[in-house]
């Protein structure tokens, strides 16, 4: 959603771009507003998956309020558990693949910016696992398995929780 705003060149997109390129988190106010607007679109009427959101405790509280206002229940929260070192390798590979395919390389797909993204994760996002564990909503999936195995695990969680 943020990338779409950047692509569209909106005022929000322009502000978000610099922050994203530096590997920092975009402000809670911006992200919360984008999500609140998006989940009111007709294609979300039967349910939706928020990928990479919430990423801070403020966002988690905001999503709770958004869902409560709309009478929607949160089915589950999936944590993909990965090894930090392997992630650097994946990012370097994604940058190489994009370059080889003649596509633009993401400014945040390099080891230096990745370190900042990781710092942001431990400071602001990691506390969410405790938050959702305490609510009995947290499901953990091994993100180091093959793409097919990770997909199957996520589908299993969704099949149990979605009605
Ligand atoms: N929930 C969020 N809160 C704040 N910033 C976010 C959030 N989700 C994404 N971002 C911003 O977008 C950047 C890229 O996020 P990422 O999830 O890696 O994107 P993609 O899904 O395109 O790979 C983050 O480093 C951050 O700047």
From TrEMBL:
Name this polypeptide is given: Adenylate kinase
The keyword Cytoplasm appears for this protein: yes
Matches recorded under Gene3D superfamilies: P-loop containing nucleotide triphosphate hydrolases
Residues that hold AMP according to the record: 3, 24-26, 52-55, 59, 106, 117
Binding site for ATP: 94, 145
Pathway: Purine metabolism; AMP biosynthesis via salvage pathway; AMP from ADP: step 1/1
Molecular function GO terms recorded: AMP kinase activity
Domain-related comment: Consists of three domains, a large central CORE domain and two small peripheral domains, NMPbind and LID, which undergo movements during catalysis. The LID domain closes over the site of phosphoryl transfer upon ATP binding. Assembling and dissambling the active center during each catalytic cycle provides an effective means to prevent ATP hydrolysis.
Compartments where found: Cytoplasm
Family named by the database record: Belongs to the adenylate kinase family.
Gene of this entry: adk
InterPro entries per the UniProt record, alphabetical: Adenylat/UMP-CMP_kin (IPR000850), Adenylat_kinase_CS (IPR033690), P-loop_NTPase (IPR027417)
Subunit text: Monomer.
Keywords: ATP-binding, Cytoplasm, Kinase, Nucleotide biosynthesis, Nucleotide-binding, Transferase
Functional description taken from the UniProt entry: Catalyzes the reversible transfer of the terminal phosphate group between ATP and AMP. Plays an important role in cellular energy homeostasis and in adenine nucleotide metabolism.
EC number: 2.7.4.3
Reactions it catalyzes: AMP + ATP = 2 ADP
Pfam family, one: ADK
Taxonomy, superkingdom: Bacteria
């Amino acid at each position: 959603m943020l990338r779409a705003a950047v692509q569209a060149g909106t005022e929000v997109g322009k502000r978000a771009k610099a922050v994203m390129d530096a590997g920092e988190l975009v402000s809670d106010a911006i992200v919360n507003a984008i999500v609140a607007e998006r989940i009111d679109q007709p294609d979300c009427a039967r349910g939706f998956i928020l990928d990479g959101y919430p990423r801070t405790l403020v966002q988690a509280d905001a999503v709770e309020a958004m869902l409560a206002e709309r009478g929607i229940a949160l089915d589950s929260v999936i944590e993909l558990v990965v090894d930090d070192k392997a992630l650097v390798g994946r990012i370097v590979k994604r940058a190489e693949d994009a370059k080889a395919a003649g596509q633009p390389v993401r400014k945040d797909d390099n080891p230096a910016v990745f370190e900042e993204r990781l710092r942001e994760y431990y400071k602001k996002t990691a506390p969410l696992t405790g938050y959702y564990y305490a609510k009995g909503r947290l499901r953990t999936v091994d993100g180091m398995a093959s793409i097919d195995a990770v997909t199957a695990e996520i589908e299993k969680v969704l099949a149990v929780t979605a009605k």
